[in-house]
Amino acid sequence: MPKRDFVRLFDLNSEELTHVLDRAAELKRLQKAGMSTPVLEGRTLVMIFEKSSTRTRVSFEVGIQQLGGRAVFLSSADCQIGRGEPIKDTARVLSRYADLIMIRTFAHETVKTLAEHAAVPVINGLCDLHHPCQILADLQTVRERRENLAELKIAWFGDGNNVAHSWIEAAGRLGLHLVLAVPPGYEPMADIVEEARAAGGRIEITDDPRAAALDADVLMTDVWTSMGQESQTQQRNAVFHPLQLNAELLGLAKRDAFVLHCLPAHRGEEITEEVLEGAQSAVFDQAENRLHAQKALMEFLVTASTT
């Protein structure tokens, strides 16, 4: 079998995505019951971090350990990538040492090149264009609270960034109704939106946060300034301030609506302390689900690439 990669959420079809989410729920149940699941015993995950992270590193490292495997951490300073080695050479070398490679980086092209030249599955832990692992955890969190995702109104407030792009692809794969409130000039990439719409996603883009929040079931946001955009912080804060996820916006949503944020959060900027810490916040369940969703993903990729 040819090996499988997870460079973007569209790398899974709808049946495979549903399978991974079902398995994530099962692995979470087993872990909570104290039952071990050494399905990747003896396997090794190499993690390359050109962008630092708390949740990505810990969830992948703990996840592969809970599956019976081991993890190797590499920062740019720890490997020859930081000294200019071509990513294709790194891919071919690491493929001879490990069973999985996860990379958290800047350019999407870096992830694509790594996947193209690696002989083992490559996972996109984050790049500037996509954040598919985060959306697996987000979808798991929504499914824990709602039965029929296709009947929900899911609202996004903020930048048309990598997280938004992966949510757009999720809408395409699962036929979701996704409304993105985005300031003019910060819209998601048009080709990603059109591809997802063609696949069945019901995707709306507006600059009116109140319209997006009205009768929403799920409200989501992310930081206004991502890593590498620090010079734009003051400008972005001014542009995005009307989209702050606060009690007023939440009050327009359905009474049982809940809130997601992929963290880290800048309280008082994209989200208020009141909403983040409130009864309708699912943010920390969402963070926990990075562990379970990624365990299911790693098991799927190894199994699909070896059977």
Structure commentary:
This protein is an alpha/beta fold. It has twelve helices and nine strands. The chain has helices spanning 14-32, 55-66, 87-94, 108-117, 132-145, 162-174, 190-198, 209-213, 233-240, 247-250, 273-276, 283-306, and strands at residues 44-49, 70-75, 100-104, 122-126, 153-157, 177-181, 202-206, 218-221, 258-261. The strands form two sheets. The protein has a five-stranded parallel beta sheet. Strands 2-1-3-4 form a four-stranded parallel beta sheet, with helices on both faces. The relative contact order is 0.16.
Please write out the topology.
Layout lengths: L13 H19 L11 E6 L5 H12 L3 E6 L11 H8 L5 E5 L3 H10 L4 E5 L5 H14 L7 E5 L4 H13 L2 E5 L8 H9 L3 E5 L2 H5 L4 E4 L11 H8 L6 H4 L7 E4 L11 H4 L6 H24 L1
Parallel strand pairs: 1-2, 1-3, 3-4, 5-6, 5-8, 6-7, 8-9
Helix pairs in contact: 1-5, 1-12, 2-12, 3-4, 5-6, 5-12, 6-7
Features:
single chain, 307 residues, alpha/beta, five-stranded parallel β-sheet, 9 strands
Briefly summarize what is shown:
With 307 residues, the protein is of the alpha/beta class.
Arrangement of strands in the largest sheet: 7-6-5-8-9
Helix count equals 12
Which of globular, elongated, flat, extended, rod-shaped describes the shape? globular
Q: Report on the biggest sheet.
A: 5 strands, parallel
Helix content: 40-55%
For the termini, the CA-CA separation is 6 Å
